[in-house]
Structure formats: structure tokens, C-alpha cells
Write a structure and sequence with these properties.
Heat Shock Protein 90; Ribosomal Protein S5, domain 2; 588 residues; 25 strands
Length: 588
């Protein structure tokens, strides 16, 4: 086949394929244009899940009559003029492709009026062919009506999913933008039904309640953080409120919705050790960054961005979210607090955060943990009752009964002791060096009388080798001992008497390959795995003294409610629930 130049119609449809993938793509482009125009109210109307009709009407600044025809031309935009402007973009749109791309695969009608114009102008586009502008009557703002999407591209139309799926995509899109722009009234209508309507009063928590229900809106934790050049706001779910996938994790950067895997990873790292495996939080995070520090021109649909200092941004997100979680993580309860009054140490964290006058400031994770005794509810002093099932401790508190998982609790105790020792020796080493950069000093270890040899499968060898410096830093002395074999010569004093081979295998078994930890999370991750293997097991009978010691150690922990892997260490049975179960407060 000879080489030839494509016709303008074919070139337009190819370009449209990068911008217009489905009806939700049309809604996104038109909504962003409305927001760029300064709209305070945006009404979206659809029919047949957007296949037959999408109409977006706004009250923004409008398009001047003399520029209306230019607005539907490819690469025509008012957002930038020079190539240098690409590196300091403060608007959502900038390529000048949306209207032209949409018009090439639909029947489009564009009506607009500026505040200083007595009349509106309208132009029609069908399959990329534009008609002559005409004078009409219309309010100030812009109305874009898209009919018969993909009518001239049947192959693309055939690949659309069922109406319920396409409608769900539009709902999810507008839900996210409603949270990102609480000062804008956004309404979605299909037929006679209005499925989304926000007031535009700027109250994000009210929007959360309207979108997810009052209970979820009440539970969501607000995060506010700021440092030089970076500002973060938004909401995250407490550890008790999770989903089975990541679909409800939303990030906006400078008002732009992005789907950025590293940012999501930073958020999940903040939840590490606080959530059960396979569970994910709800989050709506809004980042504000100087435009020159972020490149938005790296993806056809502008769904991804690149940061000039990505490690700084990711660390900022992780620390801000982690600090909020450590400050407001509640004890799991099987019933609401007692009707006779909530104990001072068990205040509802969602209520506390919603009424907090001073927002959280950003600090290091270590600072957050060190401030826990005054910043978060601690478990009350408990009186040991005994052990049941050789797996659980029973304890009495001033507000009810506590069931403690001995394995999860011991994991948490060992983890915090190990991390505390590491931090303490880092501080001492830094002091000895006068605060200069230095090589980490290892924590105390105990030499084994007989070195233990551990054999691993070949696929696990490289993984362990990469973790050897971490093990050494924690007091393990491990060296290669032949092909796929390692010799353990010493272990941390904290783990004296435990099985050293189990600690070594903990780093290579059940490895989670779906997440790449940030560099500063590797040690905590390794420590969590080692402590899991060293902790007492379910089914292990403990003496009364051992039970009391475990309970006392757990009470002293900074984060006693979960193990390092996110499982709860305790369950609280309130006095109120017990009284209801025994019929002391009426029918159940």
C-alpha cells in the first residue's frame, strides 16, 4: 500500500480517539472547560448514558462571538501561546483539542454568550464539518450539546459498555469533581431524575455525606497539611472503613483529577500496618503545587503528571496521611459508646477531628508517633481476667470488656520495641558524630552458640540478599553459606530464645509484589515481617505472669490497636452492649 497523507476527516477521528474514549470522556472535557471559564454552576444532562445526548451548561465567562468558530478548530486555545507556557500551566485545558475532537465523532451544538454581549452565538458541527454561526437568545455562559456520540464511528460505538457501566463512569467522574470544587454547584440529570446535586457552599464534608451517606461522611477524617511550596487537603477513611479495591482513592493536583500510581502508593504506604491485607481506604486528596513544579503534558487524556521533586511530594503525602491516621485511629467496637456518656479517652475520632480548631501540621512519622500520648485516644488501663482458647486474653476496662489477640498484640509490642531501639541507636550515633552524616549503628545482638543454616529456593535468594543490610541494621548477622544457603550467626537481644530461621524466612515468604515500598518504609516492612514470626502464636498457653507482661507492654505501645500488618489486636465489648444483650435496656 503506497504512503499517503490522511484526509482531515480521518486525522480528526484518530485524534479524537485519544481524547474521547467514552461518554465520560466527553463530560470530563466539557466540565473542565466550564471550570476554566470560571463557572459557579454547571448542569450536566445525559440520555442513554451519554450515547444519544450529553449537554453541559455553565454560567462562566462565555466565548466571544468572533472566536466561536475558532473554538471548534483543532489546536485553538486561549490557555497558552508559547511552548514555554506548557511548563507553568494553571488551567485544566490547554491543548485546544476537546471541542474539535468531540465534534468530529458526534453532532455538536455550541452556544455561548459573554457578559458584555446582548445576544448569544450558536454554531453546529456534524462529523467535523462546521456550519455558519447564528444569533440566538441565551443566558450568559456556554451550552455544549453533544448528540449521537460515535454515530459516524460504528466500531467505536460497538466497543462501548452497557449503559449501566457508562453511566457509572459519568457518576464517578462528577462525584470526584464535586469534591474537588465544592464552591461550584454541579447537577447531573438523566430524564426526569437528578442523581447528583451539590449546593456550591464550599462544605466538602456535606458533599461527602450527600455522595456516600451521612454515616460515612461523618467518619471520614480531614487532613490538612502544608510546607514550603506544597499544600494538601482532603479526607481519608479511618482504618475501620475500607473497600476491597482502590477505585475510591482520588487525587487532584492543582484542581486536575489524575490517576497516578506512585501517589496512590504513597497513600497506601501511610496505611501500611494499619489495614488488613486486601483492603483499601477511601480517600479524596487535593494537592496544590506551583505549576512550574509539575508537568501535566505527559498523557493524552492528561490523567498522569510528573513532578520535578517527586520524592518530596510522595513523602509529603505519606507523612500527612500517616500523621492523621496515627492521631485518630479508634479501637474497634462491637457496639456504640455507652449511652451514659463516652469516656474521655474514647472520644469519637471523627467528631473530634470535625470540631478541631487547629488543623494537623505536617511532621515526620516519628514525630507523629512520639506525640501520640497527647494526640490520640489511648486504651485505658486494663485488669487481666485470663486466657481463653490459648489464643486470646480477656481483660476488664472502665468502659467494658476487651478481648485481645495474643499473637497480634505481641507482634505490635515486638515491632515497637525493635523500631524504638533502632531510632535510639540512630540518635546516639548521630550525637557521637556531632550530627554529621554517618553509617547506621546496629542495635545490640546476641551471638548464637551454634550458627543456624537456612536454605532458600533460588527465586528467594536475591530478595534476601537485597534485605541483608536491613537485617544487619536490626542486629542480625547473616552471611552467605553456599549456593542458596545462609548462615545466621547472631540475632537481636530482643529475640533471644526465638527461632532465628523463622525470622530469616519471614522476609521472603508471602512477599507482596503488587506494591513497591518507598525507601523509608523498607525497614519498617522488614521489621513487621520478622516480628510476625517471632511473636507468640495462637494456641500457645501463657502463664499468668506472661499474660500480665503482654498486657502491660501493649498498653505502653504508641499504636496498640493494630498489629504491624493491620489486624486488630483487640475487640471492645462495651457495657452498653452487654446490658442490651442481657435485656437490661429493653428489647434487643
Amino acid at each position: 500500500m503506497p504512503i499517503r497523507i490522511l484526509s482531515p476527516e480521518v486525522a480528526s477521528q484518530i485524534a479524537a480517539g485519544e481524547v474521547v474514549e467514552r461518554p465520560a470522556s466527553v463530560v470530563k472535557e466539557l466540565l473542565e472547560n466550564a471550570l476554566d471559564a470560571g463557572a459557579r454552576s454547571v448542569n450536566v444532562t445525559i440520555a442513554a448514558a451519554g450515547r444519544s445526548l450529553i449537554e453541559v451548561a455553565d454560567d462562566g465567562s462565555g466565548i466571544p462571538a468572533g472566536e466561536l468558530h475558532l473554538a471548534i478548530t483543532r489546536h485553538a486555545t486561549s490557555k497558552l501561546a508559547r511552548a514555554e507556557d506548557l511548563f507553568a500551566i494553571s488551567t485544566l485545558g490547554f491543548r485546544g483539542e476537546a471541542l474539535a475532537a468531540i465534534g468530529s465523532v458526534s453532532r455538536l451544538t455550541l452556544t455561548s454568550r459573554t457578559p458584555n454581549s446582548p445576544v448569544a452565538m450558536r454554531v453546529r458541527v456534524e462529523g467535523g464539518a462546521a456550519g455558519k454561526p447564528e444569533i440566538v437568545g441565551a443566558p450568559v455562559g456556554t451550552v455544549v450539546r453533544v448528540s449521537d456520540l460515535f454515530y459516524n464511528v460504528p466500531a467505536r460505538l460497538k466497543f462501548l459498555k452497557q449503559d449501566v457501566t457508562e453511566r457509572r463512569a459519568i457518576d464517578a467522574l462528577l462525584t470526584r469533581y464535586a469534591l474537588a470544587y465544592p464552591d461550584v454547584r454541579i447537577k447531573l440529570t438523566e430524564g426526569q431524575t437528578s442523581s447528583l446535586q451539590t449546593s456550591g457552599d464550599g462544605d466538602r464534608r456535606a458533599i461527602l455525606a450527600a455522595l456516600y451517606g451521612i454515616e460515612i461522611g461523618r467518619q471520614m477524617l480531614e487532613v490538612l497539611a502544608e510546607e514550603t511550596g506544597l499544600k494538601l487537603s482532603g479526607f481519608i477513611s479511618p482504618t475501620a472503613l475500607t473497600r476491597s479495591n482502590r477505585k475510591e482513592i482520588t487525587f487532584f493536583v492543582n484542581g486536575r483529577w489524575i490517576q497516578d500510581v506512585p501517589l496512590i502508593t504513597a497513600l497506601l504506604q501511610a496505611y501500611r500496618t494499619l489495614l488488613m491485607v486486601g483492603r483499601y481506604p477511601l480517600a479524596a486528596i487535593f494537592l496544590e503545587i506551583p505549576p512550574e513544579e509539575v508537568d501535566v503534558n505527559v498523557h493524552p487524556t492528561k490523567a498522569e503528571v510528573r513532578f520535578r521533586e517527586q520524592e518530596r511530594v510522595f513523602s509529603f503525602v505519606q507523612r500527612a496521611v500517616r500523621r492523621a491516621l496515627l492521631a485518630y485511629t479508634p479501637v474497634p467496637q462491637l457496639a456504640p459508646p455507652s449511652l451514659w456518656g463516652t469516656p474521655a479517652r474514647m472520644v469519637d475520632p471523627a467528631w473530634s477531628l470535625a470540631h478541631e480548631s487547629n488543623p494537623l501540621s505536617v511532621g515526620s512519622e516519628q514525630e507523629a508517633e512520639s506525640s501520640l500520648p497527647s494526640a490520640m485516644p489511648r486504651i485505658p488501663l486494663l485488669r487481666l481476667v485470663g486466657q481463653i482458647g490459648a489464643s486470646y486474653l480477656v481483660a476488664e476496662g472502665p468502659d467494658g470488656l476487651y478481648l485481645i489477640d495474643q499473637h497480634a498484640a505481641h507482634e505490635r509490642v515486638l515491632f515497637e520495641k525493635l523500631m524504638t531501639l533502632r531510632q535510639r541507636f540512630d540518635i546516639l550515633s548521630a550525637a557521637a558524630q556531632g550530627g554529621a552524616q554517618h553509617e547506621h549503628k546496629n542495635i545490640p545482638s546476641q551471638t548464637l552458640l551454634t550458627p543456624t543454616v537456612v536454605n532458600l529456593p533460588p527465586q528467594s535468594t536475591n530478595l534476601l540478599i537485597s534485605q541483608l543490610p536491613v537485617l544487619q541494621h536490626f542486629g542480625f548477622e547473616v552471611e552467605a553459606f553456599g549456593p542458596n544457603a545462609f548462615q545466621i550467626r547472631s540475632v537481636p537481644t530482643l529475640f533471644a530464645g526465638s527461632d532465628p530461621a523463622a525470622a530469616l524466612r519471614a522476609l521472603v515468604e508471602d512477599f507482596e509484589e503488587d506494591e513497591t515500598p518507598l525507601q523509608n518504609e523498607i525497614e519498617a516492612r522488614a521489621a513487621g515481617r520478622v516480628c510476625k514470626r517471632m511473636a507468640v502464636k495462637a494456641g500457645q498457653v501463657l502463664s499468668p505472669d506472661e499474660q500480665r507482661a503482654l498486657l502491660n507492654d501493649l498498653e505502653a505501645c504508641a499504636a496498640p490497636r493494630t498489629c504491624p500488618h493491620g489486624r486488630p489486636t483487640m475487640i471492645h465489648l462495651s457495657v452498653d452492649m452487654l446490658e442490651r444483650q442481657f435485656g437490661r435496656k429493653g428489647a434487643r
